[in-house]
């Protein structure tokens, strides 16, 4: 009955939002209460569970989204996004801009968490879309597919990193195999799949769009690229220093602080005020007004993500993921395919790729040891499965929907299908690698 209750909860959520036009935030809370009651959560724990779910997801995303929105707005109004878009277009041309965006997404996605990469790259995507009158989903999806693949497949992202340790896999081999799988997955789910999405109607979030400035008012190429890429530079540099050099405890603690994505975004926000504000002779009052408007524009997104966190926490507290994993472990399926399947079903039911990956890891570990399955490939199988069919219970689904201003139906046809393609290509790649390694 667990799967039936989960399906009913998701159906009710879609009904409330699509048919009755209820705002997603109260709809999520109502459905979370329904799910908690039907899945057997004690009534005295429902309120605290909802609060914990909202608090947990906002604790990791609130600073990222708000500072990311303000940083993105400065990138837009200063003309930096316009400059970057023009330079990239001059390098690769309009016919290859999708591939350029995909490569940028892949490079950015290796060191950055998905949420950070998303909010940082959105201004660039929208600048290209508006300046050259191109379909938003067609241009944006390849970059976001690359961000998603790196999040699910490659260390140092949370789930694959934890699985490498849990399975006693080899980090270097996992990365090599991960790159071998990531490239075809990104190409198929990104530029190839996006060819069929040119007619998807999308009017992206206006806060990251500004009127074109004359060329003599644009910031320089180096200033634009350096400021936009500074989060990546800081994260790579702090991580590299920690792993290569022997540091005193004080310096190590300082680097841990400076390598936090939230701290990095705060640093680059204040730097952008100088490099793209003061240097460009923009008034601080005007910049702050732009930043305030940007936060207002993403407030709805923050509420929706908070609601999805409440539903995810209900599923977590009621033991849905463990129950599903336990019931599936006895299936007569090859270990790698079974790891993928368990992660995929938990992902579809719970919504979080990280939860799906880590839950599957704890359940599949004895099977790895008893069958002698390659642990490096199992990390990738579980990682691929954890990306399957993102939908209304996943915060990434709502970020894509709200930023690109899509209907739920079109978000499923684009985002959800893209994530499923990534998962399936990943599974096929793992099974093929298993034949040769």
UniProtKB/TrEMBL annotation:
Localization (cell): Cell membrane
Keywords per UniProt: Cell membrane, Membrane, Transmembrane, Transmembrane helix, Transport
Transmembrane portions of the chain: 29-47, 59-79, 99-122, 134-154, 174-197, 218-242, 254-274, 294-311, 337-365, 377-400, 412-436
Domain of life: Bacteria
Membrane topology: Multi-pass membrane protein
Keyword Transport annotated: yes
Main location group: membrane
Pfam families on file: GntP_permease
InterPro entries in UniProt: Glcn_transporter
Family: Belongs to the GntP permease family.
Name of the protein this chain belongs to: Gluconate:H+ symporter
Natural source organism: Olivibacter oleidegradans
